[in-house]
Specification:
530 residues, alpha/beta, Rossmann fold, GMP Synthetase, Chain A, domain 3, eleven-stranded mixed sheet, four-stranded parallel sheet
Amino acid sequence: MLSQFKTYESALKNFKWDFKFTNIAYELSEKWIKDKNKIAIIDENLSKNYTFNELDKLANKLANFFLANGFLKEDKVIILLGQNPETIISHLACFKTGLISIPIFPLFGIDALSFRVNDSKAKILITTKEIYKKLKLNEENFKNLKIILIDDPNYELNFLDIFINYDDSLNKKIYIAPNDKAIVIYTSGTTGNPKGAVLTQKVLYGHIPGIYMSHSGVEKNDLYWTPADWSWIGGLFDLVFFSLFFGKPVVCKRFKKFNAYETYDLIKKNKIKNIFFPPTAIKILMAEIENYDWKGLKVRSIASGGESLGEHTRKWVKQKFGIEINEFYGQTECNMVVSENFKLFPHRKGSMGKAVPGHKVDIINEKGQICNYLEEGEIAVSSPDPVMFSFYLNNKKATQKKYIGNWMLTGDRGYKDKDSYLYFIGRNDDVINASGYRIGPGPIENLILQHDKVENVGVVGISDSKRGQVVKAFVKLKSQLKGSKELEEEIKLLVKNKLGAHEYPRYVEFVRELPMTRTGKIKRNILREI
């Protein structure tokens, strides 16, 4: 683990993957069950705690149900749940039996859900009574699924009956190998239909160094929480699985709508020490902030990823929480490969950190050659890598396009400096070509966010007969504020003075809402069509 190295340089040079493979279920629950009082999940939804021992026994019961009903290794199980202990129980049962779990966001509409069901060819779907009502309206799309409800004892297949009728010791030991398929996570679909990234049992180990780095290690009284849903790789692997791997408890809480008041109350009540905040969540806190004593909460670590943070957001976190935030970078196909760690090296303005030891990350050109310092190229990760996906489900062509030689392409533009700091410019499709200048939307968005009237902003390039493209900013103002010509000019001038005349938005449009993915990323492809 990274704790054995005193400097980033020594970690990068000497780190070796050296894990004695078991399987994900062992690492998350089985290895902790001897201490029957060791808390795994603090369920704030039902005011109930679950120990590792209880989680493991319940997972064994569900696993025995799978085995007794003829389900086989690599059969797929859709887990249509949010921040629930049953989410983790369902994943553990799959990991124990070699079934493949597929987490899906519970607020998806029928079309999005139907696509994933049909694409994955899943055999089981685990969900709630409330969501099942929605499925029944479109039964034709789900007729081939065996549906299990976690909260309706009157339904033919339900968790209560399974927990009563099946043994809490695993009836049959299934051999699990490092390269066995473990989980399929669908991409957020910012550039077309979502793709099912197939990840193997090794993926948990591949995540550990990056999350360890982004939370500046693990300490005795650590207690983890994230507002990110447990149906996405960020909520699941970047926090929940990591905390359980180290035998640390995690808090689960479903907000009807994320807000500053409930966030403050939850952190204070549970004495939460470690948080994964997606940038969107921080922006909401910044917009709603009142006289809360955030520093008094004594949070130890805050990590953030998924979108660029920006210097203004960093400064706010430092001012309010009294600690540095660590940004990290990755994607569903290859997560947690770049991170900051303020104990190992200082933040450098505009940077998202350095390559996590154990992962080779660089900037390459279209021929697969490594770029020079400060030269723009595509962010790429060398394969093989334990955190890297194996392939896209039913999409061989997209899988092949993801690689040049041994490099896995992220689809993101960036550059590096001579000290190995990595910088994110934007998605390939998001880079704006204006009068020969290549402009990333991130720095412009981060600067506009510094305006005290702005809550969120999306920047894209739109066609221009003279310049090829020009910059346009879609601006969401804080509650009850209205746009004006004067405010439009203020925003333009802010960017022109701070970034440059070639980067300022020639068009500013004030909008009530921005199109967002379920993970809080701006859908710039939709903005380009407006």
